[in-house]
Write a sequence for this structure.
């Protein structure tokens, strides 16, 4: 401590005099020099010598440093005169009464919080950087769908639920296998930290492998829950649903499988066994029904089960009790038997006619409606009538489709005539096929390969008179050339609903593209193909886990589409991957090692996605892990 003084007017002496204060200077924990006024002494009467003022300050300093010790006025202060000692004791007692003695200590302790945060920039290093953006929006979507609450209601433990959510989110963002999923949790993703709140927790590989089979056991109940939840979240009426099926190919022989069968692969993988997935979705893209079928299941055979279970999951909105749900089908499924099945269950249908109409006439008003497709090409719509049947038919004439079909016909024509030419040329070759029956078989195989163009040809065979068992010549021609492209670009829509106009019918049918988009996301964005599992139960569980990932993805994409953002899931993941969680280490001014878990601010494009989704942007801002000497 020390005295400071300033010159003031002393009313008692009627002149200027020195006004004294006792001040203490100190350095806080941040290294900053600070000072505090301990006591306003005022004018000293009688006046003291400068040496006495100096000694009083020394006594007060000693008393402050040795407070609480016995005999503080012992030998250490004996060298000072009585005036100095009495004044020091008086000033000390005044400071004690005013509570000034511990002010400096309190200031030093208050500076500790700030000192802990002052880190030497030369000691800072960043470690354990992990992706957090895409995982964070997936977790918020899962909580919005209340999947965690559903599992909790079914008696699942907290650890099992956390493991399930961690694997589901990893599957949605990175589309890995179970083994790779664990490695991603270990090295790349902060998903475990988001779910559990602990930086150390991570599920075991065995627990990860149990996730998909455990979820598949709850398939029916979980799908019903998700249907109800999305209906409530987005106020969906489900008055129009889309039905289609796709297939996934296997890698491996799958000898013991009952479902893996050879069939018509939509990905041209005729060398692999298949598994068929039948889907029914609403216009918002949410699944209403799913079924995993054998790989050789024909399109028409996949519909009946869907019709039997769809009504249980379809919410009838208030005021629309008499309005029937419209089922939109592709031509491959729309057999007469299936259409009757749909009608018998109380649904309406809209599909492409499986056969090209021939005996029809235009409607009475002879009206033609022109619309544009997604490529801004004009398409003509005309209502037509048939003598037999009560269904409503709409003739679609698309110049763009006609150009495409004409090009295909030309290509098929060239290839078919090439096959016929080969068969004819072989008649003159020494080792060519000349036997009458064999040549007809060869031509028959060409007809079977190109049936769409072969039906327009007339093929004449001439037997060799010298060798009746051989073929002498083959001749061919197109019976009526103008018939080849006569009906190109023309097809018919069929529905049992007669109170909708031409343009509305066309728009309803074009919603079938939504289910094609769903199939694309399942196969490409969520990477459900190929399937490597050998057991049917594992294959079914694998596909169902992919469908749950699709629920999460479509919840996010549907919210974004309502705000005008139509990008695919892979693009969303790319944008969100810019947000990271990182551990920052450094040494503060106290010499302590400080570790902090930080989450980076989202970039502009990531923040735009957060805003459109209405989700929180920061999973956490700062988590202190440790602060040790």
């Amino acid at each position: 401590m020390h005295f400071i003084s300033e010159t003031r007017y002393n009313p008692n002496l009627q002149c200027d005099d020195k006004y004294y204060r006792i001040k203490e200077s100190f350095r806080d924990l941040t290294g900053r020099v600070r000072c505090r006024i301990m006591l306003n002494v005022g004018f000293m009467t009688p006046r003291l010598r400068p040496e006495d003022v100096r000694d009083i300050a020394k006594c007060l300093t000693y008393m402050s440093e040795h407070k609480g010790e016995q005999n503080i006025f012992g030998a250490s202060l004996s060298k000072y005169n009585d005036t100095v000692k009495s004044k020091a004791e008086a000033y000390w007692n005044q400071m004690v009464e005013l509570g000034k003695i511990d002010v400096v200590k309190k200031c030093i302790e208050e500076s500790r919080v700030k000192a802990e945060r002052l880190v030497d920039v030369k000691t800072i290093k960043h470690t354990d950087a992990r992706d957090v953006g895409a995982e964070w929006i997936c977790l918020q979507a899962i909580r919005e769908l209340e999947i965690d609450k559903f599992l909790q209601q079914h008696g699942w433990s907290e650890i099992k639920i956390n493991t399930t959510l961690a694997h589901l989110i990893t599957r949605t963002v990175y589309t890995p296998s179970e083994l790779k999923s664990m490695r991603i949790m270990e090295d790349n993703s902060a998903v475990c930290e988001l779910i559990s709140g602990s930086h150390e927790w991570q599920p075991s590989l065995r627990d990860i492998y149990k996730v998909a089979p455990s979820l598949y056991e709850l398939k029916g109940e979980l799908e019903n829950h998700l249907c109800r939840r999305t209906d409530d979240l987005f106020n969906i009426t489900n008055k129009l649903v889309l039905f289609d099926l796709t297939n996934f190919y296997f890698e491996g022989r799958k000898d013991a499988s009952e479902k893996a069968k050879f069939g018509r692969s939509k990905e041209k993988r005729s060398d692999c066994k298949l598994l068929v997935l039948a889907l029914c979705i609403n216009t918002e893209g949410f699944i209403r029904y799913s079924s995993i079928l054998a790989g050789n299941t024909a399109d028409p055979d996949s519909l009946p089960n869907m019709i039997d279970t769809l009504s249980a999951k379809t919410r009838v909105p208030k005021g629309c009790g008499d309005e029937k749900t419209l089922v939109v089908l592709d031509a491959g499924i729309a057999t007469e038997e299936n259409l009757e099945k749909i009608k018998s269950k109380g649904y309406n249908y809209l599909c492409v006619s499986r056969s090209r109409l021939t005996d029809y006439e235009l409607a009475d008003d002879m009206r033609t409606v022109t619309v544009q497709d997604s490529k801004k090409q004009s398409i003509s719509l005309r209502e037509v009538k048939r003598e037999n049947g009560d269904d409503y038919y709409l003739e679609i004439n698309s110049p763009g489709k006609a150009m495409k079909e004409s090009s295909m016909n030309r290509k098929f024509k060239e290839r078919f005539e090439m096959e016929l030419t080969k068969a004819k040329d072989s008649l003159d070759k020494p080792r060519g096929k000349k036997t009458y029956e064999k040549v007809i078989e060869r031509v028959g195989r060409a007809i079977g390969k190109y049936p769409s163009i072969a039906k327009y040809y007339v093929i004449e065979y001439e037997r060799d008179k010298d060798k009746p068992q051989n073929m002498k010549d083959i001749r061919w021609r197109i019976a009526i050339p103008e018939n080849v492209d006569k009906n190109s670009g023309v097809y018919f829509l069929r529905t049992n609903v007669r109170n909708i106009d031409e343009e509305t019918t066309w728009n309803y049918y074009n919603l079938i593209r939504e289910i094609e988009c769903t199939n694309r996301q399942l196969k490409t964005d969520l990477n459900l193909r190929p399937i490597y599992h050998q057991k049917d139960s594992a294959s079914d569980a694998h596909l169902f886990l992919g469908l749950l990932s699709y629920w999460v993805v479509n919840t996010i994409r549907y919210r974004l589409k309502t705000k005008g953002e139509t990008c695919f899931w892979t693009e969303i993941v790319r944008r969100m991957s810019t947000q990271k969680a990182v551990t920052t280490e450094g040494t503060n001014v106290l010499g302590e090692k400080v570790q902090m878990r930080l989450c980076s601010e989202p970039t502009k494009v990531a923040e735009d996605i957060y805003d459109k989704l209405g989700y929180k942007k920061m999973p956490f801002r700062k988590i202190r892990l440790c602060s040790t000497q």
Summary: Residues 317-321 have pLDDT under 50 and may be disordered. The two ends are 32 Å apart (CA to CA). The CA atoms of residues 314 and 342 lie 15 Å apart.
